[in-house]
Design goal:
Shape: globular
CATH architecture: 2-Layer Sandwich
Helix content: 40-55%
Number of domains: 1
Strand order of the largest sheet: 3-2-1-4-5
CATH topology: Nucleotidyltransferase, domain 5
Radius of gyration: 17 Å
Structural class: alpha/beta
Oligomer: single chain
Largest sheet: 5 strands, mixed
CATH superfamily: Ribonuclease H-like superfamily/Ribonuclease H
Order of helices and strands: EEEHHHEHEHHH
Number of strands: 5
């Protein structure tokens, strides 16, 4: 596979699991991340909740127990410091990280909030790419056709993510890698006319 890279940036696929829909009320429970081009360089951590608020659909989705994470999870400040340390370890010299997410607005708001709340800064700065938006523009399809039902079948041979932060980060990183190859005309990526 041909690796597409620039001199200034490294794409990092990030996925989170949370106790609800926003970081002002609900806890970030797990972070998974991987280098888009080197998926063996990855990171996973489960966090102590900041409170015991939990939406039933979030519990159903990720299956975490707040009580168990309250005992076994990593303190949020320590977790975010470990995440930042990992980022610095995997970034080539002189490069900056670019956050890549599948429905990035959701994952980004938790990661950005926790970095600022617990470390006072976000090592990603304001650099984030949403895979769904990227695909929408590249394929010239409506937003309704950017779901995992469409992209998962096309690029992963599976229709859904499993809601484990690291596995999902790896899967969405693979999707983004294939999209970049396809957009650049690389032969390794699928073609729209091959559907």
């Amino acid at each position: 596979m041909t690796i597409i890279t620039t001199n200034a940036e490294t794409y990092i696929s990030v996925d989170v699991e949370s106790a609800g829909p926003n970081p002002s009320q609900y806890s970030l429970l797990a972070i998974g991340a991987s280098s888009v081009y080197f998926p063996d360089l990855n990171f996973y951590i489960e966090l102590k909740p900041v409170n015991l608020l939990f939406r039933p659909e979030a519990q159903e989705s990720c299956g975490f127990s707040l009580e168990k994470l309250s005992v076994e999870g990593v303190d949020p400040a320590d977790a975010m410091q470990r995440f930042e340390t990992w980022l610095h370890e995997v970034l080539p010299a002189g490069q900056s990280p670019v956050f890549v997410g599948f429905n990035a607005p959701f994952d980004w708001m938790f990661v950005n909030d926790y970095f600022h709340r617990f470390l006072g800064h976000n090592p990603f700065g304001h650099a984030a790419i949403d895979i769904k938006s990227y695909y929408m523009g590249m394929a010239k399809v409506p937003w309704a056709e950017t779901t995992m039902q469409f992209l998962g079948r096309r690029y992963l041979n599976q229709p859904a993510l499993i809601h484990h932060a690291l596995r999902d980060a790896l899967d969405q990183g693979e999707i983004f890698r294939k999209l970049l190859l396809e957009a650049s005309g690389q032969p390794d990526g699928p073609r729209y006319d091959s559907l």
